[in-house]
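Table S5 (text form). Sequence records supplied for joint modeling of the two-component complex.
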Amino acid sequence: MSSKKCSTSTSIGKKQIMGVTGLLLCGFVLTHLLGNLTLLIGSDAFNKYSHALTSNPLIYVAEVGLLALFLSHIVMAIKLTIENKKARPIAYHTYTKSGRGGDFASKSMAISGLITLIFLIIHITGLKFGTHYDTTVGGIEMRDIYKTTVEYFADPIHVVIYLVAVITLGVHVSHGFWSAFQSLGLNHPKYMSKIELASKLFGVVIAVGFSALAIFCFTRGGH
Amino acid sequence: MSGNKAGSMSLNLKVWRQKNAKDKGAMVDYKLDGISPDMSFLEMMDELNTKLVKEKGDSIAFDHDCREGICGMCSMMINGQAHGPESQTTTCQLHMRKFKDGDTIVVEPWRAKAFPVLKDLMVDRGAFDQIIAAGGFINVNTGNPQDANAILIGQENAELAMDAAACIGCGACVASCKNASAMLFVSAKISQLALLPQGEIESEARTQAMVAKMDELGFGNCTNEAECEAQCPKGIKIENIARMNREWFKGAIGSRN
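The corresponding structure-token record, covering 480 residues in total, follows.
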């Protein structure tokens, strides 16, 4: 009983990195949603919120940390997926799910993760690095990200892509959230059903919350 | 159906045939009449083999032993499900009454890199033995059976350990997992020892060693789909996998080695 490998090279080590980074990313997504709710208050509130974030020098530390989380999550996902494909080199002639195991979300984690990644690139390119406008709120000059956002979502194609992406993300986290607890060994018969329910609710909140914001922006007609 | 006794069934079978480990193998179609609904699935396979031998053909090789659902030898993927469609039932305990007259039944071996096919439906499950040899034991001599209550064990842990020990090592978890992961099997073996005082002491080192061996043998990774639990003939729960993950983490951060 002496063989011990580097923690990150073992199956469970990789799964636990997926779990920890996934939970932290869930935290980011929720914070992002809550912050974006300032859109509903108005342009000044949203611009002030955005300015408070981007003018803080710690934003660079946060962004590097966030990038590290995304990269770790993606690299581990790719490694695990490749290993999983190798583990069954010859496929079954007939393979039927029992219907008592996983659901749609658990079966589609790789594809929902891939869609989320592609969307992330589109999202950052279109908004963070999108058209730059300036405005003044309370005597402080700042970026008018509100105008960029409502203009972006005035295009129905952008809205449809966004809705598909955030619903996919909702499906992804609805399995990922509870799955992280299982991978980290934080399983208890008393709490697990509640964590699974919370996971599904979290997925709904993410999908509905972000969708509502995009639709709200669309109804503004670019203003 | 001609030639059938009243109530008996005719079946179309698609069975994986493979001469040896190096042969490419293929699905072969068979027609079988006169199958009683009261036969077990293995008895139906025996009937097919009898027919093949009478026709001077090569009988289909498949693993079986006790035919009572406890040895873990029978291992067939039936219509795409490990041990067939019935919940918590081994192939030997599956009865033909679960199928209908005229059904087409697809029978394949377990598919996993770590379980190479030896012949037809027989696979080499020696990988499980290697995982057990890596740490699925306790290093002290426990001697003769103790007097009852000489070692106090909480009722809950005794029940959970017994539930985990119900694993018969048949490999259905690997076969049914889309990733061919062995985590349900390994976690059951880790749990049955970790939950009892004699096994608890070495639990972290044991988990490290067994998981390392499992990875080395080329099993896939768990994606928490619980298909293994759903198709396990003994109803082993994935909460054992969470326990294994916990024990592994404690060993990974706490071990001096």
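Note: Chain A has one domain: 13-85+107-219.
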